[in-house]
């Protein structure tokens, strides 16, 4: 199959956008993209009418294979598993991969919910809803009947229903997070109670590489106590900045010029419903 440099530049963002949403991993997605283009280049000369659909088919099936092989690893993962943060400092276009084509279906909350789907359910949901492929096209991509694809889509939508109320309004979310940080720093309890859901959950991902909570932290009181504890124990050289992670405002903490951790938020009904702290150095370029 003939793949030019122009094809690579044109389709790489699309494949990254698909692969990252399916796997939740920047590094694995980049590897799968390279495998996809290499395999396409090695194929015999074919008359491919739709390179986009053909490459998406190859990438989708590589992602499905990866998710099957990764299932055991994730079941054995130490503590909560958070997706690898997609850092977008100032939204400067420094790849991966030109900071995605679209910013929907990208929040940490959404990608965590995707863990409840089978590999084929993920594929059908994203190909249909995020990328607009027809059931006929999806059927050929994953080699299942159109009727089966429709059932997979319906099941995936039911499983993902809890993520549908999440606020994706960037400016509104940024304002709320800024108010939360200020209230936390100044110990304004009344403001904190207003900004955080009573049933908030905190997921701390150290992956067994660094110290982190091995179980989700539940309820407002316990979450605030946990945050106060880690804040007290942070080294003096740790500094944070508010930036963009997975298309939403988030905190990125730096120590000695390297990323120490990221803190992302899921907001429902003008309250912080979930907090995701990622400290696993393998997910932070460490």
Describe the structure.
- With 286 residues, the protein is α+β, with helices and mostly antiparallel strands.
- It folds into 3 domains: 1-76, Rna Polymerase Sigma Factor, Chain: A (Orthogonal Bundle), CATH 1.10.1740; 108-164, Arc Repressor Mutant, subunit A, CATH 1.10.10; 170-283, Nuclear Transport Factor 2, Chain: A (Roll), CATH 3.10.450.
- Helices cover 48% and strands 16% of the residues.
- The chain contains 10 helices and 6 strands; from the N terminus they run αααααααααββαββββ.
- The chain has helices spanning 5-23, 26-42, 51-75, 108-113, 119-130, 135-142, 146-159, 170-185, 189-195, 220-233, and strands at 196-205, 217-218, 238-245, 248-255, 258-268, 271-278.
- It has a 6-stranded mixed sheet with strand order 2-1-6-5-4-3.
- Helix 5 crosses helix 7 (146-159) and helix 8 runs antiparallel to helix 9.
- The chain is elongated and about 65 Å long.
- The two termini are 36 Å apart.
- The model is unreliable at 90-94 and 96-101 (pLDDT under 50).
Please tell me the total number of domains. Answer: 3
Poorly predicted spans: 90-94, 96-101
Number of strands: 6
Q: Report strand %.
A: 15-25%
What is Rg? 20 Å
Strand order of the largest sheet: 2-1-6-5-4-3
Percent of residues in helical segments? 40-55%
List the helices and strands in order: HHHHHHHHHEEHEEEE
Q: Calculate the terminal CA-CA distance, rounded to whole Å.
A: 36 Å
What would you call the structural class? alpha+beta
Individual helix count: 10
Name the CATH architecture of the largest domain.
Roll
What about the largest sheet?
Answer: 6 strands, mixed
**Which CATH class of the largest domain is shown?**
Alpha Beta
From the spread of the alpha carbons, the general shape counts as: elongated
The overall pLDDT average reads 91
Assign the CATH topology of the largest domain. Nuclear Transport Factor 2, Chain: A
């Amino acid at each position: 199959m003939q793949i030019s440099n122009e094809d690579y530049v044109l389709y790489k963002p699309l494949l990254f956008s698909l692969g990252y949403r399916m796997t939740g991993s920047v590094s694995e997605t980049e590897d799968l993209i390279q495998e996809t283009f290499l395999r396409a280049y090695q194929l015999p000369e074919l008359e491919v009418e739709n390179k986009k659909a053909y490459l998406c088919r190859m990438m989708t099936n590589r992602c499905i294979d990866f998710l099957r092989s990764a299932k055991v690893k994730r079941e054995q993962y130490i503590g909560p598993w958070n997706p690898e943060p997609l850092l977008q400092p100032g939204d400067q276009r420094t790849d991966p991969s030109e900071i995605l084509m679209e910013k929907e279906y990208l929040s940490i909350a959404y990608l965590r919910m995707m863990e409840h789907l089978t590999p084929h359910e993920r594929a059908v949901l994203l190909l249909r809803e995020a990328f607009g492929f027809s059931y006929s096209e999806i059927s050929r991509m994953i080699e299942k009947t159109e009727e089966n694809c429709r059932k997979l889509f319906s099941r995936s939508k039911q499983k993902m229903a809890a993520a549908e109320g999440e606020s994706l309004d960037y400016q509104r979310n940024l304002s709320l997070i800024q108010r939360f940080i200020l209230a936390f720093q100044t110990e304004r309890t009344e403001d904190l109670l207003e900004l955080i859901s009573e049933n908030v959950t905190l997921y701390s991902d150290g992956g067994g590489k660094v110290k982190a909570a091995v179980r989700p932290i539940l309820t407002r009181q316990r979450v605030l106590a946990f945050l106060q504890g880690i804040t007290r124990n942070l080294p003096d050289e740790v500094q944070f900045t508010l930036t963009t992670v997975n298309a939403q405002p988030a905190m990125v903490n730096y120590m000695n010029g390297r990323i120490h951790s990221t803190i992302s938020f899921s907001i429902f009904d003008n309250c912080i419903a979930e907090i995701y702290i990622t400290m696993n150095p393998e997910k932070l370029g460490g």
